[in-house]
Q: What sequence folds into this?
């Protein structure tokens, strides 16, 4: 497990994360919206023709061409707002993986290189998702884990956790911590 330490009082990292996440989201969203506005059938037809010389069946490529604009619009929208961010970043990364396979089969190495940049941005955003402070996800987390106003001292319930502040470093951990399940 790799842990990076980010200064807790540094909002610059969270701001940088927001700007990168929003830029990626807008980019993916506008890909989808532009293709939807111009007509998905036109895009799907062009895509089918461009894959004619590959191993992929044309019907599959055309079907994917009809689906892709809507998938891009949905993924982009969720990423822009930071809603279900981890899921949609992973979905976007998988989409780029699928697109990279297609452009590799076309032997279109310039586009494949651009897709590698997208893959790197998705990986960076996933790796540093602890800096996703300015998002709907974070707002929801703060609301649902806020201490109760009723004065309950129960610390075991997620909605009653103690909120602490510190000027120390906040660890951002890559990977999942394994929890030991003890017998009671």
A:
């Amino acid at each position: 497990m790799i842990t990076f330490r980010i200064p807790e009082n540094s909002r610059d990292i969270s701001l940088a994360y927001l700007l990168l996440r929003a830029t990626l989201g807008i980019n993916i969203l506008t890909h989808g919206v532009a293709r939807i506005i111009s007509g998905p059938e036109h895009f799907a037809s062009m895509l089918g023709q461009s894959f004619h010389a590959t191993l992929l069946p044309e019907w599959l490529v055309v079907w994917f061409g009809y689906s892709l604009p809507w998938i891009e619009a949905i993924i982009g929208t969720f990423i822009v707002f930071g809603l279900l961010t981890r899921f949609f970043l992973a979905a976007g990364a998988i989409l780029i993986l699928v697109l990279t396979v297609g452009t590799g089969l076309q032997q279109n190495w310039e586009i494949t290189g651009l897709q590698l940049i997208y893959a790197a941005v998705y990986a960076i955003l996933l790796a540093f998702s602890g800096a996703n402070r300015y998002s709907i996800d974070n707002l929801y987390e703060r609301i649902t884990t806020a201490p109760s106003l009723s004065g309950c001292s129960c610390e075991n319930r997620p909605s009653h956790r103690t909120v602490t502040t510190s000027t120390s470093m906040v660890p951002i951990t890559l990977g999942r911590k394994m929890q030991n399940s003890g017998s009671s």
